[in-house]
């Protein structure tokens, strides 16, 4: 895993466990899926993004098998997140 390109200004108080493209990952509770992945995931496994306000649709992921906009969705403990690069069909 390469160094993440983003860091929170303050260390989050609480972390939750999700699975990202089949791998376990801890992300800050209360942040958007996009923010959590940008902090914790490397470039290769982070979703693409541009606006971070729900308009460009570049951050679409699947969460528990349903498509979602990562910048407008908060993760829950145990969520299974798949980035588009990992979608098989
Ligand atoms: S980054 Fe543009 S919709 Fe999420």
UniProtKB/TrEMBL annotation:
Top-level taxon of the source organism: Bacteria
A Pfam family hit: Fer2_4
Annotated GO MF terms: iron-sulfur cluster binding; oxidoreductase activity
Leader sequence residues = none
Classification via InterPro entries: 2Fe-2S-bd_N, 2Fe-2S_ferredoxin-like_sf
Q: Which Gene3D superfamilies does the entry link to?
A: 2Fe-2S iron-sulphur cluster binding domain, sarcosine oxidase, alpha subunit, N-terminal domain
UniProt keyword list:
Oxidoreductase
In Swiss-Prot or TrEMBL terms, this protein is called 2Fe-2S iron-sulfur cluster protein
Give the originating organism: Spiribacter vilamensis
């Amino acid at each position: 895993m390469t160094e993440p390109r983003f860091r929170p200004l303050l260390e989050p108080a609480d972390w939750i466990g999700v699975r990202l493209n089949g791998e376990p990952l801890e992300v800050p509770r209360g942040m958007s899926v996009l923010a959590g992945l940008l902090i914790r995931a490397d470039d290769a496994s982070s979703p693409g993004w541009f606006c971070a306000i729900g308009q460009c649709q570049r951050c679409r992921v699947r969460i528990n098998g349903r498509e979602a906009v990562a910048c407008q969705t908060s993760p829950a403990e145990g969520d299974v997140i798949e980035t588009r690069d990992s979608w098989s069909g």
